[in-house]
Amino acid sequence: MDRFIRIALAKGRIASQSKHLFEKIGMDCSQLGTGSRKLIVADMNNRVEFILVKANDVTKYVEQGAVDMGVVGKDTLLEQQPDLFEVLDLGIGRCRMVVAGKSGYMDGGNDAVKVVATKYPVTAQRYFREKGENIRVVKLDGSVELAPLVGLSHVIVDLVETGRTLRDNGLVILEEICPISARLVVNKVSLKMENERITGVLKALREVLRKAG
Ligand code: PRP
Predict the structure, then answer these.
(1) Ligand 1 atom closest to the CA of 167, numbered from 1
(2) Distance (Å, rounded) from C-alpha 40 to C-alpha 7?
(3) Could you tell me if 148 and 117 are in contact, meaning their C-beta atoms sit under 8 angstroms apart?
(4) Which domains does the chain have, with CATH numbers?
(5) Is residue 162 within 6 Å of ligand 1 at its C-beta?
(6) Does ligand 1 have an atom closer than 6 angstroms to the CB of 75?
């Protein structure tokens, strides 16, 4: 009998949206994240197990081979540069990585080095380095929009989806870094060992995405 293929979903928006995609290709992950606190659910017919993990942890499970595949935001992949295959843009969890700050914020001023608050220190450093700008990063874990309001930083590097959080805090987009969406990722060894089943999942998902336009 086939072994179970494991798929890790990043908790939150990505998990709830990607669940629908997997349901559309005939998998049953309906019990995931609904009422129960169970972190792993099995689809016995398809011999697939779904697990729910924090967005920042998905790549660890996939890289180490504890799971075969994962669904994770491109923001996380850019930040972590994990050793795995990124095989498909699922087109969900769409948002943008931007530099934002107080409206009217101008570069320069009296401070020689721009201070950037972010959950994405690697991405922020890379972006400003490529522009030839020296910055100091303050790494935060959330509510990054607060930092320029209280003088912890000049600007932020963060995700914008609807723009509401920026607007409600009097901040504006200063520079666009890149578009972001959820990606399907695969463990390198799994792609060889379970090639047929994994490419089957991949093909089915591509077909669903194509039909959805
Ligand atoms: C994300 C992001 C922004 C906000 C953007 O934060 O970091 O703060 O959503 O969404 P919007 O443009 O639709 O307002 P999240 O909700 O993950 O919370 P966090 O600040 O605790 O990371």
Answers:
(1) 14
(2) 10
(3) yes
(4) 5-93+181-212 (3.40.190.10), 95-180 (3.40.190.10)
(5) yes
(6) no
